Each structure stands twice: as C-alpha cells, then as structure tokens.
Amino acid sequence: MLHQRIRAVTERTGTAMRHCTAMQEASGLYAGLRADMERAAVRIMAQLEHDISVEGEEFLEQLKPRTRVDLFLFYKECLVNISRHSGATQFSTRLRAGPREIHLAVRDNGHPTISSTTTSSCRRPARASAGSSLSAEMQEFSTTA
C-alpha cells in the first residue's frame, strides 16, 4: 500500500516536472509580457486600483525567454507581497525597457514595511538573471520595489 502511494507521488512529480520544463522551453512563453502582467495584476490584486505603463515593448520582445520568465515571476512576487503585507488600496506598475537595461517599478500606497522575508523573496527571482539588480525603498506612504 505504501509503495503504491510513493509510486503515485513519484509519477505525478515526474509529470509535473516534464510539464514545467516544456513550459520554459516553449517559444511563445511570456511573449506578450504586458498582457501577462495585466492578467496577473487582475488575478492577484482583484480589488485594488491598478495603473500600468510599458515603454520599449520592442526591446521586451528581444529578451531571452529565461529573462522574460524571471522578470514576470519577479513581478508576480511583488504583487503577492503587496497583497499580503502592505494593506494598499491602489498600486502602479512602470516597466521601461531599453537596448541595455530594464527598469521595473511597482509602487503601492500601503504601509511602508518591508520585512527581511519580503525583501529576500523578491530578490530570489531577480538574482536568477545575470546582471540584474533590485532595490527596494520605503517612502512615507508607499513601498517601491
């Protein structure tokens, strides 16, 4: 009985891993980064007012798939942290891409508290991209990541 349960878990885990690998290797993954970010914001931050602006979409399309994935996962982590920790009622996203750099600013009007857990969880995906950097600062009535 126990062996059957272990085997079932192993098979499900293997299937999930193959699915994750196939998703990361898919050529169109996060190709429409702006649309994906807008969908994530609606899904994660359903009740909050949101403003998004993107500059340099042509440069975003030239990013390596892995960099797009890292950027999107970092953005989602920022949204989750805002929803869990800030008590915000509104937030804004500014994404600016150029030929040599990407600047992502996510700001909210919530409580300006960044715990070491929040900051380290945001850094994890950002570190995966070579040459990326992250700064988080607290302002009087908002948090910016």
Description of the molecule:
With 145 residues, the chain is of the alpha+beta class. Helices cover 51% and strands 19% of the residues. It folds into 2 domains: 29 residues; 114 residues, 2-Layer Sandwich (Heat Shock Protein 90). A 5-stranded mixed β-sheet has the order 1-2-3-5-4. β2 and β3 form a beta hairpin. α2 packs parallel to α4. The protein starts with a helix and ends with a strand. The relative contact order is 0.14.
Which helices and strands, and how do they pair?
Elements: H1 2-25, H2 33-44, E1 49-55, H3 57-60, H4 65-86, E2 90-97, E3 102-108, H5 116-127, E4 137-139, E5 142-144
Parallel strand pairs: 1-2
Antiparallel strand pairs: 2-3, 3-5, 4-5
Helix pairs in contact: 2-4, 4-5
Shape: flat
Main sheet: strands, sense, barrel? 5 strands, mixed
- What is the number of strand segments? 5
CATH top level of the largest domain?
Answer: Alpha Beta
Under CATH, the topology of the largest domain is which? Heat Shock Protein 90
Q: How many structural domains are formed by the residues?
A: 2
| Beta-strand residue percentage | 15-25%
Q: Please state the structural category.
A: alpha+beta
Mean pLDDT: 77
**How big is the Rg?**
18 Å
Quick overview of this protein structure:
The chain is of the alpha+beta class and 145 residues long. The protein contains five helices and five strands.
Key terms:
2 domains; 145 residues; flat; alpha+beta; Heat Shock Protein 90; 5-stranded mixed β-sheet; 5 strands
